[in-house]
């Protein structure tokens, strides 16, 4: 039994060939993904999704530096690559009920006027793909603050994904002005 010797360059060519064939999905695969992509996350029992371009990155919650005397929904400041940004408990801001920080908690880093902010959420589900033709209008007169940022939703596999408008959140004067108590 003879051993076949593979030269390093040939091995690299094989890896490149596999990578290219994997990266260049078929048109059918791309159509299955859909024409709208978002980052799925959870606040309490509600599943939300924001356009993928609205979320800069998802990180495990770094160490917090507390800020005394500020609204309870501002958890403090965190250091993300030498940038201090506010960490916002999105659940507390939207519902008044504080999140319970667990091993599943994550922070969505988003842009806001004057810099970035970190939105602490209960869980992140990663990228989800939908067809915009599946968009439905949010109906009803639920006065929950969450719904003031959601006017569309997707329903997929018996799961409702409310489309959360980050841009609307960061433009909200209440969000921009955490008050000192």
What would you say this structure looks like, in words?
It is globular, with a radius of gyration of 21 Å. The longest helix has 16 residues. The strands form two sheets. Strands 8-1-2-11-10-9 form a six-stranded mixed β-sheet, with no helix packed on it. About 5% of the residues have low confidence. A hairpin with a 2-residue loop joins β6 and β7. About 20% of the residues lie in helices and about 40% in strands.
What is the typical, i.e. mean, pLDDT? 85
Compressed to H and E, one letter per element, the order equals HHEEEEEHEEEEEEHH
What is the topology, as strand order, of the major beta sheet? 8-1-2-11-10-9
Specify the helix fraction band.
Answer: 10-25%
Count the strands? 11
Approximately how much beta-strand content do the residues carry?
A: 35-45%
Assembly status: single chain
Q: What would you report as the Rg, rounded to the nearest angstrom?
A: 21 Å
The major beta sheet can be summarized as: 6 strands, mixed
Overall geometry comes to: globular
């Amino acid at each position: 039994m003879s051993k076949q010797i593979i030269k390093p360059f040939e091995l690299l060519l094989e890896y490149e060939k596999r990578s290219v064939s994997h990266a260049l999905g078929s048109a059918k695969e791309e159509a299955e993904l859909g024409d709208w992509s978002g980052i799925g996350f959870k606040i309490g029992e509600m599943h939300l999704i924001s356009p993928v371009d609205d979320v800069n990155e998802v990180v495990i919650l770094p160490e917090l530096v507390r800020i005394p005397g500020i609204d309870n929904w501002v958890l403090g400041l965190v250091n993300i690559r030498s940038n201090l940004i506010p960490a916002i408990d999105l659940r507390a801001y939207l519902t008044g009920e504080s999140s319970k920080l667990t091993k599943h908690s994550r922070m969505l880093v988003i842009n806001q006027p004057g810099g970035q902010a970190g939105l602490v959420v209960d869980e992140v589900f990663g990228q989800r793909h939908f067809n915009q033709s599946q968009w439905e209008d949010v109906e009803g007169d639920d006065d929950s603050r969450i719904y003031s940022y959601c006017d569309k939703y997707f329903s997929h596999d018996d799961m409702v994904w409310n489309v959360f408008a980050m841009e609307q959140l960061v433009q909200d004067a209440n969000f921009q002005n955490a008050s000192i108590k």
